[in-house]
Design a protein that fits this description.
This protein is an alpha/beta fold. The chain has 9 helices and 6 strands. It is elongated.
Length: about 325
C-alpha cells in the first residue's frame, strides 16, 4: 500500500521540530523523532475496509484518528526538546572495569547525591581506548552525545580516564565552566592524581567527587575558587598536640646530645674569669665601613589585570567547553 503524502500541517511540524534546536545534532534528532511519530500515526490511522460500516462508525473512527494525531503531536514535542532515552547514560560509566561492584555502587550514589544537591552533574567515565581521538575531544564528545548536564543549560563536569596510554581529561559545561576555573581545575587534578597514579582508582574518583562538591559549594556563593583564593588545607585537632610533643622531644634529644660533648667546659663566676690577664690591650677604637649590600625587588600592584578565569574551546558539536587533560 502506498503511503499518503505529508499534509501541510505535518510538513510544518517537521520543520518546527528541526528549526527550534540550537545545535545540528539536536536538529537531526528532533527531525527523526518527529518523522517517526508522524509515520506511526499514519500507519495507525489507516482503517481496514469493512463489509458494513455505518456513517456513525465512520465518524467515530475519524474522531479516534484525530485524538491519536493530537496525542502523538504532544509526544513528538517532548521528544524533540529532550535527548532520546538511549543516549542518557549514568553518572558513572566504568567500561575499563577499574572498580569493584561495591565501589561502583557507592561512587554512583555519591555522584547522584552531589549532582542533585548542587544542581550540576558530576560524572566519571573510564574507557580502555580513546579510539584515535585526543583525551579532551573524547571527553567533550562523550558529554555532548550521551545526555550529560543538569537542567536547561546542561551544567556539569566529567572526568574521563583512558587506560590505553594512561590519559585523563576533564570537560566542563554551563555552570561547570564558571565553578571550575583553569586554576581550579589544576587544583582538582592535584587532589585526585596521586591516588590515580598509584592505582587506587576508587580513592581517586571519590577524591574527585568530594573536591567537585567543595568547588560547587563555593561557586554558588558567587566567588568561585580561583587564583590565590583556593581551599585551605585543614589539620585534624588530634594531630596538633602530637606534633608539639614530637617537636619538643626531638629538640630535647638534640640539646642533650650536644651538651654531652662539652667535657672541657666549666662554669665561671664572672665574665672576667674567661679572660687571660694581660692578653689584650685596646689602644684605639673606630668603626670603618668596608662594604655595603643593597637588595631590591619589584612589588606588583594588586590593581593589575588578573590571569584567572576559565578558558574555553569548541567541541565537535559546536558547543563551548572548559577543561584540562594530561597523563597519570
Amino acid at each position: 500500500m502506498e503511503s499518503a503524502p505529508l499534509t501541510e500541517e505535518q510538513e510544518n511540524e517537521l520543520w518546527n521540530e528541526f528549526a527550534i534546536q540550537d545545535y545540528y545534532v539536536d536538529c537531526v534528532d528532533a527531525y527523526l523523532d518527529a518523522a517517526a511519530a508522524i509515520c506511526s500515526v499514519d500507519s495507525q490511522g489507516v482503517a481496514e475496509p469493512a463489509a458494513a460500516d455505518s456513517q456513525g462508525d465512520d465518524q467515530t473512527a475519524g474522531a479516534d484518528t484525530s485524538e491519536t494525531t493530537e496525542a502523538s503531536g504532544s509526544n513528538t514535542q517532548e521528544a524533540g526538546s529532550a535527548i532520546p532515552q538511549e543516549r542518557q547514560l549514568p553518572l558513572l560509566v566504568d567500561d575499563a572495569g577499574l572498580l569493584t561492584e561495591e565501589e561502583a555502587d557507592a561512587l554512583l550514589d555519591k555522584l547522584e547525591e552531589i549532582s542533585e544537591r548542587q544542581e550540576c552533574e558530576v560524572a566519571v567515565v573510564t574507557v580502555d581506548s580513546l579510539e584515535g581521538k585526543t583525551s579532551q575531544d573524547y571527553a567533550d564528545d562523550f558529554y555532548d552525545y550521551n545526555g550529560y548536564g543538569y537542567g536547561k543549560d546542561d551544567d556539569g563536569i566529567l572526568l574521563l580516564i583512558s587506560m590505553e596510554d594512561r590519559d585523563y581529561a576533564i570537560t566542563t559545561y554551563g555552570f561547570g565552566i564558571t565553578a571550575f576555573t583553569d586554576a581550579g581545575l589544576q587544583y582538582v587534578v592535584n587532589d585526585f592524581k596521586p591516588a590515580l597514579s598509584g592505582g587506587r582508582y576508587g580513592d581517586a574518583f571519590n577524591d574527585f567527587a568530594d573536591c567537585c562538591d567543595k568547588f560547587l559549594t563555593q561557586a554558588h556563593t558567587g566567588e568561585p575558587y580561583d587564583g590565590d583564593n583556593m581551599p585551605k588545607g585543614t589539620v585534624h585537632p588530634v594531630y596538633i598536640p602530637i606534633s608539639l610533643a614530637i617537636g619538643f622531644l626531638i629538640s630535647l634529644l638534640i640539646g642533650r646530645s650536644k651538651s654531652a660533648k662539652l667535657k672541657s667546659v666549666r662554669k665561671k663566676e664572672s665574665a672576667a674569669d674567661y679572660q687571660v690577664a694581660g692578653s689584650m690591650r685596646l689602644y684605639q677604637n673606630s668603626d670603618v665601613l668596608v662594604a655595603s649590600n643593597v637588595t631590591s625587588r619589584v612589588v606588583s600592584s594588586s590593581s593589575g589585570s588578573s590571569s584567572g578565569g576559565s578558558s574555553t574551546h569548541t567541541s565537535s558539536s559546536g558547543r563551548s567547553h572548559g577543561g584540562t587533560s594530561g597523563k597519570f
